[in-house]
Amino acid sequence: MFYRDERLALFIDGSNLYAAAKALGFDIDYKLLRGEFMRRGKLLRAFYYTALIENEEYSPIRPLVDWLDYNGFCMVTKPAKEFIDAMGRRKVKGNMDIELAVDAMEMAPHIDHMVLFSGDGDFRPLVAGIQRQGVRVSVVSTIRSSPPMIADDLRRQADNFIELEELKEVIGRPPRPHQTVHHTPDEETIEE
């Protein structure tokens, strides 16, 4: 699936990848993930997309965002929007699809292979557009969760589908039961 001399770029939909890994019962070690794809080709960029809740004293995602920013990832963030749903529950929404799509289209002339970490079917037209520019596209998600985390039309469009569970031994972080884990809606797990 990968050639050692091809130029790669990773596009990580943070909340989607977190949800897929959580559904499979593991946390991702981003240092291992970056290292794995550096071995597979010439990694030019690793983009990570997430929305951040502003005006909170402590955001559980902030330590991960800072670590990624200092360790070779191109962080793309924007403020999440908070609202109250019809049932009176506080909800947080932060869609990063447009930012990811624009960056991918801009990078396409400079890469040979795009690796998209998302199962979101909204990315099917983006994948088709990137392919029309002569770039191969691999999609990383899972069909082994219930329900599957990848849209069927996205999986069909991609040149390669990489099952996230098969990467668990390579990029998974061993569980640390003695630490507290915080969860935010649709966001990454941060440990204290």
Please characterize this protein's 3D structure:
It is a single chain. The model is unreliable at 179-192 (pLDDT under 50). This protein has a single domain, classed as 5'-nuclease (Rossmann fold, 3-Layer(aba) Sandwich), CATH 3.40.50. With 192 residues, it is α/β, with parallel strands linked by helices. It is built from 7 helices and 12 strands. It has helices at 14-24, 30-40, 62-70, 97-107, 124-132, 152-157, 168-171, and strands at 7-13, 27-28, 42-52, 74-79, 81-84, 90-93, 113-117, 136-141, 160-163, 172-173, 181-182, 190-191.
Give the oligomeric state. Answer: single chain
Number of domains: 1
Q: State the CATH class.
A: Alpha Beta
Distance between the termini: 37 Å
Strand order of the largest sheet: 4-3-1-7-8-9
Short description:
This protein is α/β, with parallel strands linked by helices.
Fill in the keyword field for this structure.
single chain; 192 residues; alpha/beta; Rossmann fold; 6-stranded parallel sheet; two-stranded antiparallel ribbon; 7 helices; 32% helix
Write the layout of secondary structure elements.
Elements (H helix, E strand, L loop, with lengths): L6 E7 H11 L2 E2 L1 H11 L1 E11 L9 H9 L3 E6 L1 E4 L5 E4 L3 H11 L5 E5 L6 H9 L3 E6 L10 H6 L2 E4 L4 H4 E2 L7 E2 L7 E2 L1
Parallel strand pairs: 1-3, 1-7, 3-4, 7-8, 8-9
Antiparallel strand pairs: 2-10, 5-6, 11-12
